[in-house]
DNA sequence: AAGATTGCTGTTACCGCTAACAAGATTTAC
DNA sequence: GTAAATCTTGTTAGCGGTAACAGCAATCTT
């Protein structure tokens, strides 16, 4: 593998100049830079990450904590992870994935954390390295998330546009900021349109949503659309409705939230608010690397736009 | 952060002796080792991975290639990845996740590859670092996989034990070793029991399996059990049957393969051959690290035992 | 008892890179 | 025209480890 020294010889400069051409190009004459870069290309130079890490007292490693139960959230995080990992790789960072914070062996340059619960705040606030959370939070910690409010706004507006008389929100029964945001988005659009909001909440399990439909079927009038806070709930709602009436696509509507795997498994496929998981991953990584580099941390909250993905669980037109 | 030098001072030896106490303890007097280890404990010593990597001409990075379409396989690989990552972290290795082999920037000490297709053999054989595949293959490359044959044997035996008259195999229409193994397991048990094997194959999409049931329903006698080569197909078979007859649990049976997410989404939950994904991940990592350390590579093929997970898609007793 | 062997520890040099400083050349200031 | 400022490049040292070798005492050979 070519080293700085090798490049230096070919370009007839010292290795320090080569190093500078890479890290502080403004300090090197253009003429030299040209020959240095062509030498680098010729020798297929790849910086030695370990050497760089050693001299900078860094590790070039980022830890990604998944604090939620991985069995339940499996499909959700894979794309996020890919987004994170590919962005990091571009900047010669690699990843350690942790599902249990006590296993915290070895050093890193920063943390990306998802699935944080209230009791995690204690140890997270004590971390001495830059941290980025995936998911809104009430602790004034930097985070990246989907614009949850906008997501349910889009969903609710779409339901109204399709002419559903009654638009009901099926929420997740947790006291988390993301849930409040989703409910808010729904409520806002309902109020803008002088409609009465109607919200029901369940733990995030499809069978609870399904049971709800079956238990209250007599009171569920046709031409109702359910805006759900997750695809999991939407999946249950849809199953319940199909059990009671096969005419879902025309008489009823179901809109989910997430757009990760489950929406495609459903038949018909769910109309859903799709989170840009890959881009969210990239954004987490980008924000974290910036915090590491700048060593100065104004609070940053980044919200990415979701996309309404039309499936067969709502009527067309 | 404490360094070897710090330990050395406290233990009144040279840093070389400390290094030896860690890496070649047989060359150091017990007496010194005791004081060195207690100094290490006292100062909470953690080796500097970058320094070690630099001097050993290693990177302490492993690349994990997912060559299949991540959208489709999302839930499947998450647990595998966790298994890999946590094992690697224990030995101070970190991970780079690649979903596109052309993005191959930066060095590593070895590769774990999954979803390899025939056309990938070309570049994989040219890799100069140790490689472990996840998944059986015909190329004499080291691999780790579930014991696929045993999996369908278990499933087929269970179906016969439950008294199903007719046991049909629904395969994936690909010419891959894992599929042959799964079909073989089924065929073997059928022959042991003097039954005629019956195999149908489809691309791995649930709706194809569902369509098959609907199209051939008149020829599908009650008391039939379907052994499927994936949960995806099993999911489709189940949906098809439910559409035709609500009595699946007593008249029909469906057994899937994978046990990753989809089996739990189905209603009733699928009986399935569960792959030990976490352990498979650990095994991939363990095998690869061993190959890196030993620098000598006898072909190794490691098969882990699957587990039959009983759900509601087969009858009890 | 002298030389050879063994067992254990220390010294040196180096892995590839970069910050800090040194130093020469050129431009600017007055 | 000379001193100071600026621009550009090179030299040195060191990040935290480890291999290779040197050195010395204790033990073994014959």
UniProtKB/TrEMBL annotation, chains A, B:
One Pfam family this sequence matches: LacI
Domain HTH lacI-type, first and last residues per copy: 2-56
Highest taxon listed in the record's lineage: Bacteria
A GO MF term: transcription cis-regulatory region binding
Keywords: DNA-binding, Transcription, Transcription regulation
PANTHER family hit by this protein: LACI-RELATED TRANSCRIPTIONAL REPRESSOR, TRANSCRIPTION REGULATOR, MEMBER OF GALR FAMILY
Record-given protein name: Transcriptional regulator
Organism name: Agrilactobacillus composti DSM 18527 = JCM 14202
Lineage: Bacteria, Bacillati, Bacillota, Bacilli, Lactobacillales
């Amino acid at each position: 593998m070519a080293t700085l020294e090798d490049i230096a010889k070919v370009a007839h400069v010292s290795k320090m100049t080569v190093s500078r051409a890479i890290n502080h190009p403004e300090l090197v004459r253009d003429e030299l830079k040209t020959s240095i870069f062509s030498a680098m290309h010729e020798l297929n130079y790849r910086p030695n990450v370990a050497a760089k890490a050693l001299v900078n007292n860094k590790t070039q490693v980022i830890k990604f904590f998944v604090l939620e139960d991985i069995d339940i959230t499996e499909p959700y995080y894979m794309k996020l992870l890919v987004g994170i990992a590919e962005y990091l790789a571009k900047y010669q960072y690699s990843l350690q994935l942790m599902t249990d914070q006590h296993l915290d062996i070895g050093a890193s340059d920063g943390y990306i954390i998802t699935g944080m619960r209230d009791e995690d705040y204690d140890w997270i606030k004590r971390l001495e390295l830059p941290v980025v959370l995936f998911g809104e939070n009430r602790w004034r910690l930097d985070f990246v998330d989907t614009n949850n409010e906008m997501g349910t706004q889009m969903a609710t507006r779409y339901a109204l546009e399709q002419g559903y008389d009654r638009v009901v929100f099926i929420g997740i029964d947790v006291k988390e900021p993301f849930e409040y945001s989703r409910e808010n988005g729904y409520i806002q659009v309902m109020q803008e349109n002088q409609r009465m909001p109607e919200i029901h909440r369940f733990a995030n399990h499809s069978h609870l949503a399904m049971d709800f439909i079956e238990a209250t079927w007599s009171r569920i009038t046709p031409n109702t659309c359910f805006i759900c806070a997750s695809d999991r709930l939407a999946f249950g709602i849809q199953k319940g409705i199909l059990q009671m009436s096969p005419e879902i696509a025309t008489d009823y509507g179901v809109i989910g939230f997430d757009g990760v795997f489950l929406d495609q498994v459903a038949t018909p496929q769910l109309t859903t608010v799709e989170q840009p998981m890959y881009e969210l991953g990239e954004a987490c990584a980008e924000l974290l690397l910036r915090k590491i580099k700048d060593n100065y941390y104004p609070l940053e909250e980044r919200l990415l736009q979701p996309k309404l993905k039309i499936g067969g669980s709502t009527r067309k037109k």
